[in-house]
Amino acid sequence: MTSPAQILRNSDAVLLDFDGPVCSVFGGFPDHEVADELRGLFRGELPEAVGESRDPFDVLRYAAGAGTVATTVEQHLRDLEVRAVKVASPTPGTAQVLETLHDFGIPVFVVSNNSAAAVSAYFEAHGMAGLIAGVSARTGPEVDQLKPKPYLLKRAIEALETAPGRCVMIGDSETDLEASRHAGTLAIGYANKLGKRQRFEQYRPNAIIDHMHELARGTPPRGAGRRGGVR
Fold first, then answer.
1. What pTM was estimated for this model as a whole?
2. Which of 63, 128, 208, 220 could form a disulfide with 73 if both were Cys (CB 3.0 to 4.6 A apart)?
3. Ramachandran region of residue 37, left (φ > 0), alpha (ψ -120 to 50) or beta?
4. Fold of domain 4-24+90-216
């Protein structure tokens, strides 16, 4: 595999997942509590898989097929995500990576299944809004636009006015790598938990890292500047 730093040096733009690579969204406000709150919006009994899931997105996906309740569930999830990011733990090393890429002139677009409101709230609260070029994230109940579908990546690439092959997606899940493959970008898997490295290998990413600070190794020093830019 090519070194992560070399991939970044040769890329025009970075597409960065949010939950995991940037912060642990539900680290301070557990995901199962969020899922419970969302389930409370339904009347009647839910399917067992939905009723027992710890993942709020399982509830959102079910709501998407349940008619008019979808918008209500998505809006409530958005509000809960905004609450959650206020107490979310930053991922070690990511701030340094964002600063390095910003100083070198490589734009970073955050691409997330989380709500755009939550992503923006986090970066504003941590004083890092100026380090990202934009956000391509969930803005409504249309779950068919979320990763592993490539829609959010393609939207970011279009905004960056560059080619998919000149972008690298950095994510911590198989859905990120699958979306990257469908969008035609390079990919770096962030294996932040045991077993992920082995699962990622079947997707053949361009590189796999265990810690975000690995992305800053060998990249240009702060203030070095960059030749050229996004094409």
1. 0.93
2. 63
3. alpha
4. Rossmann fold (3.40.50)
Q: What pLDDT digit, counting tens, does each position of 73-118 carry? A: 999 999 999 999 999 999 999 999 999 999 999 999 999 999 999 9
Whose tokens are 């803005």? That residue is 139
Two tokens, residue 54: 């710890």
Q: Which two tokens stand for residue 6?
A: 């070399």
- Alpha-helix runs per DSSP H in the chain: 4-9, 31-39, 48-52, 56-64, 69-85, 94-104, 116-125, 151-160, 174-183, 196-201
How far apart, in whole angstroms, are the C-alpha atoms of residue 160 and residue 56? 30
Query: Domain map of the chain by residue range?
Result: 4-24+90-216, 31-85
Strands 89-90 and 23-24 come out as: antiparallel
| Cα separation, 119 vs 95, whole angstroms | 15
